[in-house]
Specification:
274 residues; alpha/beta; Serine Threonine Protein Phosphatase 5, Tetratricopeptide repeat; Collagenase (Catalytic Domain); 2 domains; globular
Length: 274
């Protein structure tokens, strides 16, 4: 079969729309678009396609279906390795498949009716004397990797959402000149800052006493789900170092959600002994 570029690009458009529908939790529509996209893509991007279909299935709560698409992604990757072991795409695709394998394995080990996932994550606790946690957000006018006002306000509002649900937290917005003394720094991600497939990253720094002393957050802009992304990274920065195995939690590894779940809150309570 000869390659038809116009047909292929139509498939790409369907694939991208399927991902948008998935992130809007329109799962039936998303799967119909994924299946239509396959007809146009000539098996050229089977691995990321099956990866995204597995995410959609897991997000919808169908672990069996997620495992099915995960296995298809694995088989496609192994076939690529066998046919061309020096294919440069393998080094980018392998981490995607490995991360999905870890998530599905984790999900299969937990109980569906659990009220928290505190045992599945590391606990990063801010000492009480560090409160209020000052949050410095890079400003576009004075920093190359800064945010415009609307994004800056959205970022701070995301931390406020956590405070509303976890009221022992105290936060304050740092002034533009207070980057060095702020406890939480948020910047746009630059080239090479993030792992492949990641939209954000949170790094923890400790003082000589072993206390959590500072957190640096990097997020990718433009992100199609900035509100979800920064709310998720805020959850990391406040104490949840790791991901929920449950797809209906904000702290699930690929969550498109924009609300903090009760299980997220219960996990944070356990971390802080509340």
């Amino acid at each position: 079969m000869s390659f038809d570029h116009e047909k292929f690009m139509k498939g790409v458009g369907l694939y991208e729309e399927a991902n948008r529908r998935r992130d809007n939790l329109e799962f039936d529509f998303a799967f119909s678009l994924y299946e239509r996209a396959q007809e146009f893509l000539y098996k050229r991007i089977d691995i990321p396609l099956f990866y995204d279909m597995a995410l959609a299935a897991d997000l919808s709560g169908d672990l069996r279906k997620a495992s099915e698409y995960f296995n298809k992604a694995c088989l496609s990757l192994e076939q690529m390795k066998a046919e061309n072991p020096h294919d440069e795409r393998i080094k980018n695709l392998q981490p995607l498949v490995d991360s999905l394998a870890h998530q599905i394995s984790l999900r299969s080990l937990v109980e569906n009716d659990a009220t928290d996932y505190a045992n599945q994550v590391e606990h990063k606790v801010w000492p009480q004397h560090k409160f209020p946690l000052t949050i410095w957000i890079a400003d576009q006018a004075s920093h190359q990797n800064g945010f415009d006002k609307s994004d800056s306000d959205l970022i701070y509002a995301s931390f406020e959402k956590w405070v509303q649900r976890c009221q022992w937290f105290q936060i304050a917005r740092a002034n533009k000149a207070d980057q060095e003394i702020a406890k939480i720094n948020v910047k746009q991600a630059g080239p090479g800052d993030l792992q492949s497939g990641s939209g954000g990253q949170t790094n923890f720094l400790f003082n000589d006493l072993g206390e959590l002393d500072r957190v640096d957050i990097r997020v990718y802009i433009p992100s199609p789900n900035l509100q979800s992304l920064i709310l998720h990274e805020a959850g990391h920065a406040l104490g949840i170092d790791g991901h929920s195995p449950y797809s209906d939690d904000l702290m699930w590894w690929k969550s498109p959600l924009i609300n903090i779940s009760n299980r997220d809150v219960e996990t944070m309570k356990i971390i802080y002994g509340q």
